[in-house]
Structure formats: C-alpha cells, structure tokens
Amino acid sequence: MSSIFTGLVEEMGEVLAIENGEKSLKIKIKCKKVLDKSKIGDSIATNGTCLTAVEIGENYFTADCMYETVKRTNLKRLKAGDKVNLEKSITLATPLGGHLVTGDVDCEGTIASITSEGIAKIYEIEIDRQYMKYVVEKGRVTLDGASLTVMRMTDSSLSVSLIPHTQEMVTLGSKNIGDHINVETDLIGKYVERLLNFSGEDKKEGILTREFLLENGF
C-alpha cells in the first residue's frame, strides 16, 4: 500500500553512513522523533523521498534506495554528517496540516538565487520545465519533503519564502545557491492531467464530462 505524508517536517536527522552499491545505496540516519512507535517496514520520508526502514535502532534507522530513487533524488549527493528532513507516513488519525505528499520525487531542482525580504528569505528553485505545468502561484510544492507555498513562478522556476522559524526547522534554510533540492509537485494536478488526456470512450472530443468523473471515483 502506498504511503502518504503531509510535508510537515518532524525533525532533521543526520546521515551516519552511506553505502553505495551498483545502481543503489544504503543510508543510515541518526534521528529520534520519527522512531517513536516505528517498526521495520514503515515508511519514512527522507528529504521528501519515501524510504522503507529495513533496520531500526535506538537512535537510527537504515533504508535501501533503488536505482529509480538514486537517479531522481538528491540522496545520491549525501555524505556522512549531512542533515536531512524526516517525516513518518501519516495514519487516518494524523492531522493534515500541510498537503497530500506521496514521497515520490519528480525531479531535482537547483537553487538559483537567495534574497532577503524583511524577516524572510526568498529561495528561487529552477526545475525541469516539464514539471512546471503542475505548479501554480499560491499553490503548494514539496521541497526536500517540506510543504511550502509557491509565492511566484516563471516558465522554469518557482520561488518560496521562509520565515526565520522555518529556516531553522528545514534543511532548505541552510542551503546555498547551486545546491540541489528534491521537488514533488502537486498530486491533484497530475490526476487532472491524466483525466484530461485519458482516451476512454466516456471522454469525447477532449471534453471532461461529469459522468466520466463520477465513474472514475471523483
């Protein structure tokens, strides 16, 4: 069953070790909060990437990363001592304070600029243009697992604003121009695109009908 997160970072963990394999890697992370009531097999978002805990100790967990994960995310760039954003997958009893996040990273983005604006810092993130269609101004985006509001955008970049508290609570606050960020765009936008492009017999001449939506669970 797929895991869901909120994009509300519970804590910043510390990379204890990275073991590189052939098109894979094993990562060991020091942490505390996300281990509460966790067990082997549970999902823990690490820099926004859904990972399965294969080993859990008193103050760490270990996860294996397959090739697709290594290819798409910044986990391949980590080294011992680096900080990572962590969040356990939610249950039906978990308050939804951010937005629905799958932990399936779309791509890496690159920090293009960092500017101060009053008490806040504005981070401009450049991403592959093909994913900008899922980004809307004042919508939500997940950067290294943190749910943030898009304040402005261009054809190939999006900008978010971090107040001092958020700068201290997530890894983005300590990153620099040129650093790579995991980006997960809005889940709903992807489903809408799929529905609009679906070639089923109930979708005629590119028009999305009420009947089509009802029959497909919407």
Number of helices: 4
**Helicity level, as a percent range?**
10-25%
Let me know the largest β-sheet.
Answer: 6 strands, antiparallel, barrel
Uncertain regions spanning at least 5 consecutive residues: none
Beta-strand level of the residues, as a percent range?
35-45%
User: What is the CA-atom radius of gyration, in angstroms?
Assistant: 18 Å
Order of H and E elements: EEEEEHEEEEEEHEHH
Strand order of the largest sheet: 1-2-5-4-3-6
Number of domains: 2
What separation lies between the terminal Cα atoms?
A: 20 Å
Structure overview:
The protein has 218 residues and is mostly beta strands. It has four helices and twelve strands. It has a six-stranded antiparallel barrel with strand order 1-2-5-4-3-6. It has a six-stranded antiparallel beta barrel with strand order 7-8-11-10-9-12. The chain is globular and about 55 Å long. The mean pLDDT is 90. One of its GO terms (biological process) is riboflavin biosynthetic process. One of its GO terms (molecular function) is riboflavin synthase activity. Pfam families: Lum_binding. It is an enzyme of class 2 (transferase).
Which helices and strands appear, and what pairs or packs with what?
Elements: E1 11-21, E2 24-30, E3 43-46, E4 49-56, E5 60-65, H1 67-72, E6 83-88, E7 107-117, E8 120-126, E9 140-143, E10 146-153, E11 157-162, H2 164-169, E12 180-184, H3 187-197, H4 210-215
Antiparallel strand pairs: 1-2, 1-6, 2-5, 3-4, 3-6, 4-5, 7-8, 7-12, 8-11, 9-10, 9-12, 10-11
